[in-house]
Amino acid sequence: MIKSTPLAAFNGNGDDQRALVVIFLRGGADGLTLLPPFEDDEYHRARPSLGISKKIALSLGGNVGLHPQLRELQDIYKDGALAIVPACGSEDDTRSHFEAQDLMEHGGLVGGGWLARFLRNREDVHSSALAAVAISRDLPEVLRGSPSVAVMQSLDEFSLGKGSEKLASQLEKLYGAQTDALGQAGLGTLKELRRIEKLRATKYTPEHGAEYPNDYFGRGLTQIARLIKARVGLQAASLDLHGWDSHFAQTTLIEPLMQRLAKGLFGFYRDMGKAMETTTVVVMTEFGRTIRENSAFGTDHGHGGVMFVVGGGVRGGRVFGEWGALQTNILEFSSDVPVNANYRNILAPILLKHGADEKKMGDIFPAFDLQPTNIYG
Amino acid sequence: MKISRRKFVQAGAAATAVALAGCDKIPEFLAAAFRQKPTCDGPFHAPSSDAIDAISHALNRLTFGACPHDYARVSRLAPEPQEAAAAFIEEQLAPEKIEDAYCAKLVRRFETLAQPFGEMFEFQEKLLLSELQRSTLLRACVSERQLYEVMVQFWTDHFNIDPSKGDCKWLKTSDDRDVIRRHALGKFPELLRASALSPAMLWYLDGRVNRKSNDEEKPNENYARELLELHTLGVHGGYTNQDVVEVARCLTGWTVRGTRQSRFQIGKVEFKPNRHDFGRKVVLGVEIPAGGGAEDLDRVLEIVQLHPQTAKYIATKLCRRFIDDDPPPSAVEVVAGAFLQSSGDIRETLRALFATHEFQNTRGNRFKRPFHFVVSALRAVDAETTADLNQIDFLVRMGHAPFNYPTPDGYPEEAAPWLGTLLWRWNFAVALTEGRVEGAKFDFDALKGKFGGDETLMAHFLGRKPTEEETEAYRESGNGLALLLASPAFQKF
What we know:
The structure holds two protein chains of two kinds. Chain A is of the alpha/beta class. Chain A has eleven helices and eleven strands. Chain A has one domain: Alkaline Phosphatase, subunit A (3-Layer(aba) Sandwich), CATH 3.40.720. Chain A is about 30% helix and about 15% strand. In chain A, the strands form two sheets. In chain A, strands 1, 4, 5, 6, 7, 8, 9, 10 and 11 form a nine-stranded mixed β-sheet that branches. In chain A, helix 3 runs parallel beside helix 9, helix 6 packs antiparallel against helix 7 and helix 8 runs parallel beside helix 9. Chain A is globular. Chain A starts with 18 loop residues before the first strand and ends in a 13-residue tail after the last helix. Chain B folds into four domains: about 35 residues, no CATH class; about 160 residues, no CATH class; about 55 residues; about 120 residues, no CATH class. In chain B, the strands form three sheets. In chain B, strands 1-2 form a two-stranded antiparallel ribbon. A two-stranded antiparallel ribbon of chain B has the order 3-4. In chain B, a hairpin with a 2-residue loop joins strand 3 and strand 4. Chain B starts with a helix and ends in a 7-residue tail after the last helix. Classes of the chains: A alpha/beta, B mainly alpha. At the A-B interface, helix 5, helix 6 and helix 7 of A face helix 20, helix 21, helix 24 and helix 25 of B.
């Protein structure tokens, strides 16, 4: 006999589930371009070609703006659903992509990802095969150690095959005849499966007139939206947007990326509609870039970057913190934006909002003195 | 192993050539001719009773699943099933006497496993991890030393290390080989000491930064705590926080040269006296006099390695793995006694466990963890496998990929955390039948033929005769093999 445990019902009740979507901008996205401090003379002096002027920046009502390619993000901001954190990053000073991404995804020098630890501390996480979804080819570090991760690129990977209805109904008979928790688990799983089969069978039409860009990123967000709305018990999803490492010809390199980011996020935001109240999207990057542009019209690895938080009840329409006085005459760290907000202090309140136990925060972000920023108050 | 006439002649020719050449080493390509996958020719025998018999039970518990020829082979070990099972257990308790050339040959392709420790740092971390994962899966699938592989997994979880932390990326391969695999069926005190001084463990539980108190720093208690809580006495073992502090003091000074800090002898374990607390300590009521340096480590291990609470804790975990999620206290007592009597001899301890009536009579109740499920499926269909990364992917989705667990307690043994993996198991079952599991080749029709009938075939998979419901489900499912692998009975052992 397999004993029962206090698990959430296997009906994939997404009504109780809040979903957290983590988007990682790989390569070190240039925060000063995404959120230009157009009033700062030092910024313009350091970036004669890359600087964004007040005229072309999208106004946020203060002394920073959004890059013109992020037009759709301005809409979300005006809706009050986007919070922005400049000078955000990690305490380590590695300029290595690999190391910095690892440290940020793990939440420090620790094994496994912080998102995995968050899920692991949830009592009900074992009830769904789709509690954690990574739209990816490989397991992302942030989800390493999660109880189960659906590493997938398409819903087709869930199929039981052609003509599987017969198989499913026979399994239903066998599991239905079991009197222990295994039987329960089997029947619940079949319900989950039928929901997914329905999803796969129907062509998806985004709601509220939303449009997703037709690329990897847009498609990934579509999958996530579908799964959240199908209430299969999804609690966390991860998706990457690559290509931000703009050492040369920065404008050419990242303007298309900014467009895709903004259009994708906006499509998701619109499509989710009311469900955005229980869905949070976090956009982060492993580090920002140098204040000074280099001789190839690009920027090099820096320190503080920018973080975005969309939805989930966040107090949007606000910029939390500031870039501060940009100092390019410091010999150490060759002109870097400082980190005024540690990424954990933004993630911690989000995880709490998503049901993390306050007492467990020390397990999720070990060896760190958390000082959560109040992004909800 | 059957040797065909052709191979016999080839062997003769080869041996002659070698003798004439005066070379005392048979060239690899000739030797390879001898090491084929042990052929499984039918007709196969399958269990024939309605309930799991002694042989099926022994196969269930001591292996990662029965191959088609296993039941017949074990039956032949003795006339009565009970004796045959006992003979099988004895055989598995002496892995060094079990011929395993085919497995060794397949594992050799994972070159990083055999690298000298210092060379590990030359390799890409992703490669090290993937070879470790794949070889672990492969060994579980093809090794004849099944109990050994089961115990390797047991100790890997017990002394869990997540390679993704810091330098562990380059260090876990050696820990797997030189700590876990070297001592899996050896002696617990030796295993414990090897683990305590494993570079990977020193990194993983921060032993390497454990130094005596001064103005800026205090000892790092991480390893000390887990040593007591997870490796020896267990969380209810009766140690106090003060004990943790004292153990940490004893272990101050041990460190590892890291990749970021050193340029030479990276990974070398060193004892630095200037970081060690030489004061007097008291651990679990035992005094460790002042002035001890590196030997303080041995003093601590002596106190905990064969402590009665340690015996109870290890016995409980073993009984959980081999008997029931809720280990019967009477069995735990017997096993703990054997542990102490034998000074922590793992084989003796297991021998005592397998002799308990609780072990012998509690059958078919345990829930396979995903790794066990995948391996038992591949073994049941007699698949030739290269343990491709694609197979690891399935395990990732089930949350049970080897070396992916982040915290020191290791993958849980009880059923509850794994109940949510059914969807991925069924997915795997269907993918296997449709040939979508890369690197796994098998012939189900041939298998059916060798078993000579559906009922015998089903009995092989289930370890007993199928029920009427199961037989009907098999017929009506449209995909009999997938049904078998996805069925509730196949999830248990």
